[in-house]
Amino acid sequence: MVSFRTTSKLRLLAAAAPLGLLALATPVQAQDKPAAPAPATTDDQTADNSPDIVVTGTLFRRTDTETPSPVTVLTSENLARAGVTTVADAIRSVSADSAGSIPTGFQGGFSAGGSAVSLRGLGVSSTLVLIDGLRSTNFPLNDDGHNAYVDLNSIPFSVVERVEVLKDGASSTYGADAIGGVVNVILRKQFKGVMGGVEGGAAEKGYAGHYRANLTAGIGDYDTAGWNLYVNGEYQRDNRASVADVGFPFNTTDLSSLGLADQNTADSALSIATINAVVRRTTQSNLNDPFTGGVTASGAYTTLNLTNCAGTYTDPAGGIGCKHNNTLEFSQVQPLSEKFSFTGRFSYRISNDIELYALGSYSHSQVNIKGTPPAIRQRQPYGGAPTTASNNPGIVLPYFVCAAGVDCITAADRRLNPNNPYATNLGADAATAGANAARVYYLFGDIPSATERGNEVLRGAIGINGKFGDGWAFRVEAVGARDNMELNSFGTINIAGLKKAVSTGAYNFVNPNLNTQAVRDMIAPMITNRAYTSLASLDASIAKTLTTLPGGDLQVAVGGQIRRETLNNPGLNPNLENYANTAAAFGAHTVSAAYFEISAPVLKQLEIDGSGRYDHYSEGFSHFSPKVGFKFTPIKELALRGTFSKGFRAPTFAESNPRSSYPGFVTYQPPADFVTAHGGSTNPYSQSYSVGGGFSGNPNLKPETSRSFTAGLIVQPMPWLSFTVDYYNVKKKDVIVAGPSAGAARSAYYSVAANNYPSGAAAAAAGCAAVAAIPGYSCGATDAIDPLHPNALPRVLVINGPYVNAGYFKTQGLDYSLEARIPITDDVKFTSRLDINQILKFNVDFGDGIVRKYAGTIGPYELSSGAGTPRFRGNWQNTLQIGNFSLTATTYYVGRIKQVGADDLDADGSGNIDLSCAGSAGAFYPYPPGGAQAKYCYIKSFIYADLNATVKVNDDFSFYVNVGNVTNARAPIAVTSYSGINYLPTWHMAGVIGRTFRAGANFKF
User: Fold this and answer.
1) Neighbours of 548 (CB within 10 A)
2) Of the candidates 669, 139, 179, which has an alpha carbon nearest to the alpha carbon of residue 454?
3) What are phi and psi of 829, to 5 degrees?
4) What is the pTM of this model?
5) What are the pLDDT digits (tens) for 203-245?
6) Do 199 and 1003 form a contact (C-beta atoms < 8 A)?
7) 566 near 588, Cβ under 8 Å?
8) Residue 382 has pLDDT above 60, yes or no
9) What are the CA-CA distances from residue 968 to residues 318, 989, 992, 996 (Å)?
10) Same domain, 595 and 621
């Protein structure tokens, strides 16, 4: 069943092995162990010390982890050997994590600072994350404004016993969110004594410092005394890494040395905003409003302050500029993050058959993300640096300044604007003053742009479980959780404050160091968003062995759940006082469910499982999710397995609540007749620009539905060797998307461009009427009238629309896993684990009937971090243990990704998507055949290895050294990435940070 293509990939991995026999060790996956029973630990035992375990995806205890559904098990031992220190890194190392995954290093999204997994590429909101089989509350900020997920950074790591990843639909057992699969983090059940560890390290050149410590203390012998109590605390800090630290090509947008484009025009064009203010003479139609500057400018540029420049240059239009690389000066690779947590658990054996437990935890994470300072623009005087002079011409510094609220044209106390070098005559009339305004290009270098995200999660669970009577087992558990987030945003321009500062001359553009903090706060006050989510759930089930079949006990379980979930996220801009790009979401609902499962080992060789769940949401919709599976073992060395299931994903609060809203932006080029009406392409008003989309919750949404099936082969030819191959096929329908008709709405608005209207206002009204003709759509805002062509159609700035059910996702692929445990001698052991995912197909239809093929490309480009869909991901971990010494190499592989995305269509709008490098969907970047850029059509495959050496001094003490990216492999260039400077944070972060060193010690007594 292994194709030649797959075999070649395995050979590629082997060829790249940096350490001979040990190389290519990768994942942290403790792979499924086909026929061999999983060794039980105290933590897995029931109250009567039976060695059965409960595997994610089933309600029954069993003696092996090989269920009909494929499950990957990550043990704490293998995580330690791989040098993994967070739950986020552990889960996201699973090869089934694909498009839409959110790394902590992703800094540009709505939920930047959070971390999430997207199994099968179906989105973070289709992957369910559990802790000890129970839900937790979601992160208050939705990814892409509407996708809900549990922040992996909020889960304590040092008490994790293992992580189980169910790579199959599981809505029949767990309900909504489990279309793509389930991640179940299993925490330690009991501990007696004291144990802990400390760790520190940094990148090879000293940046990206890393510090970690944890301590666990427990009392009470559960086996003899019947009770145990332990408490745990852990702390971790990861220091910032800037693009200046990591070097070329991740520190600049100038790739001309590689034959690619130089997009860093800040050191060669005075019309680009930098921290040295530049002005050019223009007009101002209203001397009291700096936002009424002309759209054209003339004459030479003037830099207001040329001191402290690293270098200067002369602009072709005249004027001396100060060289800047805004990317190098302000961008970062890794944010500053700090987190700590406390966890406690009490276990009490009521009787030999009944156990009671209570668990509580508190976690706090803080992420600080720096960015480019805010800029001045003409129509959008906020946000980051403009990209070109033509479509971001800036606002103007007036000729005169005077007190706020005073008519500057007639004011007796007006004075010349000290920031406008063209203001030379205090007695000038209004016409002269209006003809000598100064269009300004400027980054507010004295106003930092940053966000601080503090997130705390409080969670508690209590449960009782056990057995009674003749083969009865029961479980009753309650969990409550609350996630409180405070987001402080710095550097977002307040429009009214900026207008006041410019009109009165309060802000000093010549020497920003002289500005007071009060003036800076007037322009860009700190904005705080306090949001929270909560969850309260009660879950109970009862199971019974009905009879004995030829293959074992026939078991039946039934259960029910009721839970309450809330979200309150007012966003950064609840009063519309600024133009912060933010999202708001609100909601509360109650979900009740009933479920069942049947396990029927009808023969010694054949196990059949069936399950189903009925969920009812207080919003008014219900859904039944069935699942069947089988495992056939004709001989002990071979087993076949398969499943078929149907599932669903309920709309999130952001998608369904009418109070929720989400703003997004796309770059749009107005049509030819609009350009002609505005005097041609030389007019900046007719250039491409950002069109906003305001999407609101739709209470009429249906749940997304899915069907999936898997088929697998489990082989164990020898007791020490096993491997699995599983095929999966998932289709998700009625996918909830943000306005698939937004393009049609834009086209409808601009369809009136060629008509003649008595005024631009009348034209805008006609365009908005055309938009309103599309159900659910409306104009949110239109631009100011073009002063050069006041009767022509103004640009539309925002088009509002609803979330809707449209189209489908379909993905299919293969999972490969291998585990070998070779006892060479009594003191020498070799262990190898391999985990590979191959995506055969990932097709998406957004409701317009056009199928976009994303497998192996940078698409879906607008999904989460825009990291693409690599066809291959793999990891291989090899450990050689010699007595008390062990050496582990863990190697990670990501296949090449074509820098082409099917998100865009051909210019003719036919829907014939050209996925060649020279096609119109070509990577959003030109790659003409034969050109110097052609070799960059693909983001190259990436492979790196981590090396971990551990010495066990005695039973109570060990120390270790970890070398991350031991060969210092460099990340491949990804010029299409918007989530990192020429790299993809989701897949290539290790190759940007470079080689790292960490050392630590663990103790126990």
Assistant:
1) 10
2) 139
3) -135, 145
4) 0.86
5) 999 999 999 999 999 999 999 999 999 999 999 999 999 999 9
6) no
7) yes
8) no
9) 45, 12, 9, 9
10) yes
